[in-house]
Write a structure and sequence with these properties.
Blueprint lengths: L5 E4 L5 H9 L3 E2 L12 E3 L6 H5 L6 E2 L6 H4 L1 H15 L10 E4 L3 H15 L5 E5 L9 E3 L11 E5 L6 E2 L2 E14 L2 E6 L3 E4 L12 H4 L3 H4 L17 E3 H10 L5 H16 L13 E9 L5 E7 L9 H18 L4 H11 L2 H4 L13 H15 L17 H25 L6 H7 L7 H15 L4 H11 L74 E2 L5 E2 L3 E2 L2 E5 L3 H6 L6 H23 L2 H9 L26
Parallel strand pairs: 1-2, 1-3, 3-4
Antiparallel strand pairs: 5-8, 6-7, 6-8, 9-10, 10-11, 10-12, 10-14, 11-19, 12-13, 14-15, 16-17, 18-19
The structure holds adenosine-5'-diphosphate.
Amino acid sequence: MAASLVFRLHDRGPELVREVLLERGWEEYEEGEREEEDWNLYWRGSAFRNSEYHNLLPWQRLNHHPKTAGITRKDCLARNLRRMRATFGSALYDFSPTAFILPNDYTRLLAEYNKLRLTRGLSVYWICKPVDLSRGRGIFIFEDIKDLVYDCSVIVQRYISNPLLISSYKFDLRIYVCVKSFNPLTVYIHQEGLVRFATEKYNLSSLHNLYAHLTNTSINKFGPFYKTEKERVGQGCKWTMSKFRHFLHSQDINELLLWQRINNIVTLTLLTIAPSVPSCPNCVELFGFDILIDNKFKPWLLEVNYSPALTLDCQADITVKKGLISDLIDLMNYTLTDSLRERAYQRQGYRQSCFHTNHPSHVSIPVLSKVKETKVQKRRSGSQSQTQTLPLFNPRNNHEKINHEKINQRQSRQHAFVADYRGHLPPVDLNKLYAARGRIINTTATKIHTDKTLNLILGPHSRTNESVVNSQTCPARAPWLMDNRSLRMSEVTNHDDTETEAETELSGKTDISSSIHDLPQRGLGFRQKLPNIYSGSQRPVRIPLEGTTAMNGQHIPPLRVGDFIRTFPFNSATLRASQHKLDVKIVIQELHKLTGQLATSMDKLRRKEEEEVRKNIDGEEEFDSLLWGPKDPPLLSQYFKPT
Ligand code: ADP
């Protein structure tokens, strides 16, 4: 029987992740019950230390990439977007309200304030937000600069004072973005998301009323009208994205351009940090992008959340977040990685050694077994265990020494362990392996052989492949890991994972989206629930489940996994541009082209739909993508000529 996968939660949360993984048959890691490395996924709301990235074993994944604070901290995001605006033009990077980081930018703010006041009079509004707080804490809106009072680092932004309203209620969108890899950049956006409403009607004459101006659940759930049935919005303060799509349809709004603009915002924002995020193939990240739409249908980026809230407050949360996490796990493509973990432990005598007492023969057993044994001994015999053979845990040693030795031992243990583990893999020609992974372009013939050999053991897209490559080609450590400074907590602040406490579910009566999702099937994996992606045709479009390999040997990640739609790379030019050193210029050119073509040629190309779909079915298109956003996402090739 296949062994279970093991998850590890920091501080015992979030509960939703536990629930989804247990439902899928995973086991929870318990401190002291398992070996320190005996897990497949470590999930935490805050940042991991550099050492935790460095010590990752091939079957282990973390739910954060290193060094992403460049977009998840409000001031860093403002700074990075400013830099990109200077490099690539303000026309492209015009999706975020002008921001000033105070106190440093105070003079610039004052100049802008005075300029606007002269040209526009008093109708300009500003919003002030502490840089390292989340969940709406410390935020206020002002019109007159004399009302700007702050005692910590803040950003002051132009307040979008003409938001799109639904029955006079302000709302924003929470878009879930998964960066499966920064190198090469691989991005998926989830089809479901949340629409978060303010709970009092929008009114610019009451800037102090946060229930009318902020859309944070953590604020609105304490509002007097939270549970009231509000016109069109209903009870509570959230919709699913499906319900929002219905709303757009009912208003006869052409949503395609809106979705594509949001899509562009996500890509352009990630481009600000992608070239500088260290490669860490065993990491994945779920970001929460907050988007506000104004009354001209222009989407604005408000912020990027590091650990989007996974608490379940209402039916919309349950519908969206459960599916989201389940799809995220599918996206990680765990299948065969687990057996590597299990087999490695069995090979090392791990299980047997758990039940051994101290014995002279232990001197020759692999290092891992020693450590496990040490723990067992320690548990069994308390402070006076067999300390002569295992000085690491000698309670008479001083703490510093123990810690130092522990680190050394852990490192050598892991090297020995990984080396031993590698020894059981089939021989790998690194050039071929690189070719198979799209890093070096090689002949197709050699690639196929390597793919087959590896896939037998690792599965076609297991990151384990990449880990092995990395540790073989760079056994010491990656250069970025030489910097042993750990990520400071303060580097990452927009994590709203504790946004709200779970509370009594609101009635889902008005939530038309509840009929749209097929929740009970989620645990079965994404293969069961691939929808018909082309609403205009009865013919099914072929979707490669495991991704494909293009003619030049580059691996194309799957088009969609569950409700996650691949949004980057979106054509062969962006695939090529992201393979080695990310070529931001080319990516931006392609985004331009795509958006331009979407805008101008929708009608013309719509007539070609049938032809394009047929082309795809016949397999003539080597690389296509879906347009994220619409309920049944169309293929991009219907609108865009792939390069
Ligand atoms: P936090 O991290 O505290 O949630 P946000 O930047 O997301 O901070 O702001 C909280 C809320 O304030 C948003 O959800 C939105 O409703 C409102 N908001 C923030 N910035 C703006 C802005 N520039 N214009 C209009 N509304 C804004």
